[in-house]
Design brief:
The structure is a homodimer. By secondary structure, the first copy, chain A, is α/β, with parallel strands linked by helices. Chain A has 3 domains: 7-52, 434 Repressor (Amino-terminal Domain) (Orthogonal Bundle); 66-160 and 300-320, Rossmann fold (3-Layer(aba) Sandwich); 163-298, Response regulator (Rossmann fold, 3-Layer(aba) Sandwich), CATH 3.40.50.2300. Chain A is built from 12 helices and 12 strands. The first copy, chain A, has helices spanning 7-14, 18-26, 35-48, 54-61, 81-93, 107-119, 163-176, 200-213, 229-242, 253-266, 284-287, 299-312, and strands at residues 66-71, 97-102, 124-135, 145-152, 158-161, 182-187, 220-223, 247-250, 275-280, 293-296, 318-321, 325-326. In chain A, α1 (7-14) packs across α3. Chain A binds chain B through residues 1, 51, 53-56, 58-59, 64, 75-79, 81-82, 84-85, 88, 92, 97-102, 116, 119-121, 140-142, 229, 254, 257, 261, 264, 283-284, 287, 289, and chain B through 1, 51, 53-56, 58-59, 64, 75-79, 81-82, 84-85, 88, 92, 97-102, 116, 119-121, 140-142, 229, 254, 257, 261, 264, 283-284, 287, 289. β2 of chain A pairs antiparallel with β2 of chain B, so a sheet runs across the interface. The structure holds a DNA duplex.
DNA sequence: CTGAAGTGCTAAAAGGATTTAGCATGGAGA
DNA sequence: TCTCCATGCTAAATCCTTTTAGCACTTCAG
């Protein structure tokens, strides 16, 4: 593989100066160059397969066409990696690349990841969290910063899922299908703390608003802060003992998984005897049988939007991304 | 935030030349500089919070301390993102950063992702696949390339899980605990095609070798190429109808998930009535109850090893990474 | 006493792109 | 005829770091 062609090589071949070549290739607005020259430049560049040297360009421009992505554990866990896909998609569309770094949520590691990105002269920075929480990010003046699925106390621009609407729609979906005796598993005061979640409150509020609109309340609610299958299993058992329901809303898919297990043990068939709706759309949701109807956390779109905001600059304080309903087989319409 | 200090700024403050500063900070071996000068340089650098400009350095050196990672869908799916964690860990230890790009397994997209990385002057490239398959990667002379969880027809250096040993150990684990009547679900001739998998053959061979060592054979095997819960469910039903077993080896965790469902329906309790062992260690494995004993695909370590090989240069043709046994609750020792 | 070797440091070039300032040329207007 | 302006292009500076070549001085060996 021959050495990479430089601007000077192109200029020589085209019989013009590097200045001219640069101007043509960058299509500078106010440079009145002849169409003939432009044509020769383009031909020469193509012939030599010219690629601008990013280091040289970065040195001169102070821009690197690079965006840094720092996350608590988005990259490295399985839940939220769709966020990266969104970031990468947009970056590629806009001819940027993405530098990735992990850091827990320990402030010092965040700071050092950030420093790394700034050292590398990233043109912008996206912070992404797996769960929508509040984080402290050092404020930086130089480059645009956007938080994806997170909020900061300092009011940095952020992208969050529209949990209120999702909560509303989840409940509405059941109500619309005639359900009136509905239980909820996973209510927790503790989760209203922004350190743990900045969106759960909206999820609750959306659910409650939908029920209120129909003039009803949950027939039973199970408190629970740790949203794992255990909670769903025990919670569903509690529901079955206390009252009769036609539907259960689970705080997330893992809780719903537990509900499935409890239902099966009790001989209840989903969705014939019990409808289930939940939140998140983890991959688990499509493995269950019947597959789970759930409100998706839009990691992909949050990634896309965050990247767009960073690249466009001047992002608004808060951007909400819709959580689409994944309609599958766990809900039955009552006649 | 004041403008970033340059080498010249440091030199001025230290009362020395940029040359000297560069030599001190890079600790060049054969430059006999006074300890006094070195001390002054370090003090000045610290005071100005000097960070070398990576673009300038990259321009001069032709190195970027950057490694490109191209994958089919490792980043963007949930299964294998631990590989990235491994890559990032090692990169950080060695003061490198990772550029990430996705591309399906379509040759043109791979080529363009590769071109992107070379454009950006990556010092090395790692290709990572979610499932261990064969891919065609254009051979490049300039930079080291390592395949992680993949093999190429052209014999590029690769890192693969040690499936033979894993197969052997999985079977051995059951045999050691007194199991003799064992079924296997997920045998498939078709999967021996390297386009679909380059490791399944070894997995089978390891299983067979362990049984052979004990002088027995599987009491029943279920063929199946698509390793989803359906196969496990139907396969287990088939096993139960045909014969009596004390243990089932599932081709992967999703198949095992189906086995769990079939067992539960039939009133068999795991591990009391039926032991289950499988492969992969997806996160599903720890959600099942009882949790699944499974041979882990070592994505993290494959990532680490691949990055180390790229950074060290001159990687061997094939490196095997052990697949650790995740010992959980799905196996019972027969008295 | 002279030449060689060693010491501690620096000037200047190189790396490849972008950008500012400005050089010829030709035509239009006075 | 002379000035002015537009046109089409280029020389040279700039971004920041690394590296080569070498300067000026001292010490040592012969």
């Amino acid at each position: 593989m021959a050495k990479r062609a430089t601007l000077t090589d192109v200029a020589r071949l085209a019989g013009l100066s590097p200045t001219t070549v640069s101007m043509v290739l960058n299509e500078r607005p106010n440079s009145r160059l002849s169409e003939d020259a432009a044509e020769r430049v383009r031909a020469a560049a193509a012939k030599l397969n010219y690629r601008p040297n990013p280091a040289a360009r970065g040195l001169r421009l102070g821009k690197t066409r690079t965006v840094g992505f720092i996350s608590d554990e988005v990259t490295i866990t399985r839940y939220a990696s769709a966020m990266i896909r969104g970031l990468l998609e947009v970056a590629e569309e806009r001819d940027h690349t993405v530098l990735i770094s992990e850091s827990g949520r320990r402030a010092d590691r965040i700071a050092s990841a950030l420093e790394l990105m700034l050292d590398r002269q990233a043109d912008g920075i996206v912070f992404g969290l797996m769960g929508a929480k509040q984080i402290d990010v050092p404020v930086i003046a130089d480059v645009p910063v956007v938080l994806s699925n997170a909020r900061s106390a300092s009011g940095l621009p952020c992208v969050l899922p529209d949990e209120f609407r999702a909560g509303f729609e989840a409940a509405h979906y059941l109500l619309e299908r005639g359900h009136r005796r509905i239980a909820f598993i996973g209510r927790s005061e503790a989760l209203l703390d922004p350190v743990l979640s900045v969106t759960i409150g909206a999820r609750y509020a959306g659910l409650d608003a939908a029920l209120a609109e129909s003039g009803i309340e949950f027939v039973h609610q199970v408190d629970g802060r740790f949203w794992e299958p255990d909670l769903g299993y025990a919670g569903a058992q509690e529901v079955f003992q206390r009252t009769e329901v036609t539907a259960i809303i689970a705080a997330n898919d893992r809780v719903a998984f537990g509900v499935y297990q409890a239902a099966q043990e009790r001989g209840l068939r989903i969705p014939d005897d019990l409808s289930v709706v939940s939140f998140d759309d983890e991959y688990l949701a499509s493995y269950l049988r019947p597959q789970l109807t759930t409100m998706q956390i839009p990691y992909l779109d949050m990634g896309r939007v965050a990247m767009e905001l960073v690249l466009d600059g001047d992002p608004p304080t808060e951007t909400l991304v819709p959580m689409p309903l994944q309609e599958r087989g766990s809900v039955r319409a009552l006649s």
